[in-house]
Amino acid sequence: MKTKTFYKITGIFLVVEAAMIILSQIFLGIIFQYPDVFQLPVSEILIKYQRSGGALTLSWFCFAFGCLMMIPFALMMHKIFNNHNTPLLIIGTIFGGLAGVFYVIGISRWILLTTFLSSQYVDPNISTAAKESIEIIFKAFDVYAGNGFGETFAPISHAIWLVILGISMTKSKIFPKWMSYAQIVSGLIIAMRPLEYVGLKKLGELSDTGLVLWTIFMFVMAFRILRLKVDESSII
Q1: Which of 175, 151, 188 shows the shortest CA–CA distance to 77?
Q2: For 97-121, how does the pLDDT look when each residue is reduced to its tens digit (9 = 90+)?
Q3: Is there a contact between 197 and 147 (Cβ–Cβ < 8 Å)?
């Protein structure tokens, strides 16, 4: 594949990925009052989920798919910035791929598990004991998949990738230095998410701001890549 073609595909890919993540979260906010919905009792969350219909499940799916796209995105960035001056980039790329997997695991509990549990929960013939069991199952997976993978392993892996990627970008002439530093700063902010579980809730919530800034920054990177003037030598 020619360099120019590869760069165009990468730029378009970034636009699509960022759009899916941002738009899905906007729709989740409208349909499901995400992320404030997490403050509600489990019973209300399940009922609200069921009443929201297929549009909610589709929004979660788009969110998950956008995160899954981080895997090829990390590989594309590796191809662009990898050279003899960036020996650590392979480690960063691995963590970038892992971040995508971990985010999807965290989000998938809504697409699959919650869809099933909420349909059972609103059954008029269900017993009180069964409802309590469903609530326990939901809470358990919320901690395991949500807090564990989605809000601990994912942001830490994401942060490691962005910091290493940012350092690698400083050694390239493709992007200005400020864009490299923006990657590093975004990564450090995103890494704060697990601090919520050690009593530093405000710092943990700051991670959400880092994710939003990074997603917006993806558009900047995409347009920068699309406007690059490169030769027609083969990159792949």
Answers
A1: 175
A2: 999 999 999 999 999 899 999 999 9
A3: yes
